[in-house]
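Budget justification aside, the reviewers requested a transparent look at the raw inputs and outputs of the sequence design task funded under Objective 1. We therefore reproduce one unedited record. The lines immediately below are the structure tokens for a 252-residue chain.
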């Protein structure tokens, strides 16, 4: 039997649907749908959320939800680390103990999305504060380095040429020839392959900045509207809109 992610992708493509089309109909972000098809379970989170997304996506595509969840449970190491408490049902309806357990499970099930959402918001706030602090400390140093470099390279009586906006190089370490840099303005799943080796993969928060050096780079983004790309220090912009899953190859 084909891997679980390939079964979802094949069923979707057979219906002629894109990830964005499915996302609009079942209200699951396309970045999570892409993670299911890539079997990147860590990008979704705890197994309880993975199982919920699997059931919803499977019903929409006409797959057997329970068989899909069973395949995930048997094939994913992450599924065995956290008991599927939210999926168990009491086998007996007699006695106050079983009733109390059922009530506790219902309370946990109702509270879990709220706890998860609060954790995500807290992580984004921390990332935003760290990014602002880093930017504030880096700007003065960058300005002084740029000024000293310009004064050393040009005669005192020559203002020198001004680069056009499309050729403006980013300041700071890590940018330059044979480089590709990614700057996240929103959370996104990323996979970056440089010269045939996977250098970065996972879900990263807003404010993340990564630079890679090599000859060729293959970039796959789960939220194209939230990632700015710089090649050899030049801003090439974003590869798509928010929520779009895009893959693009670059020669450095």
């Amino acid at each position: 039997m084909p891997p679980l992610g390939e079964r979802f992708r094949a069923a979707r493509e057979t219906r002629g649907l894109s990830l964005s089309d499915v996302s609009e109909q079942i209200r699951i972000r396309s970045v999570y749908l892409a993670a299911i098809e890539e079997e990147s379970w860590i990008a979704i989170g705890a197994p309880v959320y993975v199982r919920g997304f699997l059931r919803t996506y499977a019903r929409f595509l006409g797959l057997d939800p329970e068989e899909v969840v069973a395949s995930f449970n048997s094939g994913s190491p992450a599924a065995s680390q956290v008991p599927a408490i939210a999926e168990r049902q009491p086998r007996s309806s007699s006695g106050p103990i079983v009733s109390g357990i059922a009530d506790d499970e219902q309370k946990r099930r109702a509270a879990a999305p709220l706890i998860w959402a609060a954790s995500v918001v807290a992580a984004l706030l921390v990332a935003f504060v760290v990014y602002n602090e880093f930017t504030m400390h880096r700007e003065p140093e960058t300005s002084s380095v740029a000024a000293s470099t310009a004064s050393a390279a040009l005669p005192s009586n020559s203002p020198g040429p001004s680069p056009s906006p499309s050729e403006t190089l980013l300041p700071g370490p890590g940018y330059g020839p044979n480089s590709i840099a990614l700057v996240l303005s929103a959370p996104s799943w990323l996979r970056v392959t440089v010269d045939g080796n996977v250098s970065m993969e996972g879900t990263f928060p807003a404010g993340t900045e990564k630079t890679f050096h090599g000859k060729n780079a293959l970039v796959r983004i789960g939220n194209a509207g939230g990632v700015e790309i710089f090649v050899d220090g030049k801003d090439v912009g974003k590869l798509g809109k928010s929520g779009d899953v895009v893959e693009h190859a670059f020669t450095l």
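The beta strands are 179-184, 188-194, 197-204, 209-213, 216-221, 227-231, 234-237, 246-251. Residues 206 and 225 are 12 Å apart (CA to CA). Computational costs for records of this kind are itemized in the attached budget.
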